[in-house]
Amino acid sequence: MSQNFAIVRTPGKTINRGLRIFDRGEVDVDLAREQHEKFCRVLKDIGYNIVVWMSSNDGLPDSVFVEDPAVILGDTLVMTRLARPERRGEEKELEKELQMHFQNIQRITDPGLVEGGDVLVTDDTLYIGLSKRTDIVGINQLSRIAEPLGYNTKTIILPDDRLHLKGEVTYHPDTNTITTTPRLAPEFKNAQQRIIEIPVDDGLGRFGANCISKGNKIITTSECPMAEKILSGYGYEVFPVDLSEFNKIDGAMSCLAKFF
Ligand code: CIR
Question: Does 120 contact ligand 1 (Cβ within 6 A)?
Answer without folding.
Answer: no
